[in-house]
Design goal:
Blueprint: H1 12-26, E1 39-44, H2 50-61, E2 65-67, H3 82-91, E3 96-101, H4 107-112, E4 119-125, H5 131-145, E5 152-156, H6 163-174, E6 178-182, E7 196-198, H7 201-204, E8 210-213, H8 229-236, H9 240-243, E9 251-253, H10 266-269, H11 276-295
Parallel strand pairs: 1-2, 1-3, 3-4, 5-6, 5-8, 6-7, 8-9
The protein binds phosphoric acid mono(formamide)ester.
Length: 299
């Protein structure tokens, strides 16, 4: 791989290769790098805890030199653009940049530039795509069920604003899972119908193998929009009562951060059926696999 920008651009074979390599890293495999020294910079222009810090841990576990960068103390504050920031990183010898940015498809200009040599890993582009979260979610599902074919997976909540939902619906559908959607109609778009079926939450919960709850993304909503946490939880959330209807062996996922008692009841977050903590852990290992593939130019 030269870059990782969307999951759609990966072949099924590349996806499975990254999942298996993530599992191998989790079980102690090591990287034998082709070069003595690699530099990676994590350029986060939107807030992040999991993606940013798990990339940092993945890089350090691989022995990569992590170039410190914080948008609020960089020349971005003097008006420097994303393009010129990445051009600078490339010029000073950074092999790969991990970028989170609020603009969808921010990477187009970067990868088309003949002056930029650095590889780009997309750590989330606005409401566009979140390919590394998708891969860690796939790894978590694969660890649980050993396959995607015929699994019933529901993606529930603020789907329109979720880059995680978009990456996951595309890839789960392609890998043979039956994808379902639920949540407020105003946060659902009919264009998602090509990947799955929209149903009220109470009609699908007992049939699902995976319930993937999404965060309500207030930062992407109209600030004048009224919102009641209790009402959302009651109508669209995974309540304790609803969780009792889940089938045996079914799991709960959430990309986090979690709004406890909004999209999911507080007591379910670390409960027996939850894989939310495991998702975070798997994020480190799948990101090791992604870094290795990008830095060595192969999946
Ligand atoms: N899941 C996820 O992307 O979390 P962060 O925003 O904390 O990186």
């Amino acid at each position: 791989l030269k870059h990782l920008l969307t999951v759609e651009a990966l072949s099924d074979q590349e996806v499975m290769g990254l999942i298996h390599r993530g599992q191998a890293f989790k079980h102690g495999s090591i990287w034998l790098p082709e070069k003595k020294q690699y530099f990676v910079a994590n350029l986060f222009f939107e807030n992040s805890t999991r993606t940013h810090k798990s990339f940092e841990i993945a890089e350090k576990k691989l022995g990569i030199d992590v170039v410190d960068f914080a948008a609020d103390t960089s020349s971005v504050q003097k008006g420097e653009t994303l393009y010129d920031t990445v051009l600078t990183m490339s010029a000073i010898g950074v092999d790969c940049v991990v970028i989170r940015h609020g603009d969808e498809n921010y990477y187009d200009q970067l990868i088309q530039s003949p002056s930029i040599q650095s590889s780009v890993i997309n750590g989330g582009d606005g409401s566009g795509q979140h390919p590394t979260q998708c891969l860690l979610d796939l790894m978590t599902i694969y660890e649980e069920f050993g396959s995607f074919k015929g699994l019933n997976v529901a993606i529930i909540g603020d789907i329109t604003h979720s880059r995680v939902a978009k990456s996951n619906m595309q890839m789960l559908n392609r890998l043979g899972a039956n994808v379902y959607f639920s949540g407020p109609r105003q946060w659902y778009d009919e264009i998602f119908d090509v990947y799955g079926t929209y149903l009220p939450i109470d009609e699908l919960i007992s049939e699902m193998d995976v319930l993937m709850m999404l965060r309500v993304q207030h930062e992407r909503h109209d600030p004048d929009e009224s919102f009641s946490k209790q009402e959302y939880h009651h109508k669209f959330g995974l309540t304790v009562e609803r969780a009792k209807q889940m089938k045996k062996g079914a799991i709960i996922m959430h990309p986090a951060p979690v709004n406890r008692d909004v999209e999911i009841a507080d007591s379910l977050v670390e409960g027996l059926q939850s894989r939310i903590v495991k998702q975070m852990t798997n994020g480190v290992y799948v990101r090791m696999a992604i870094l290795e593939a990008v830095l060595q130019g192969k999946a």
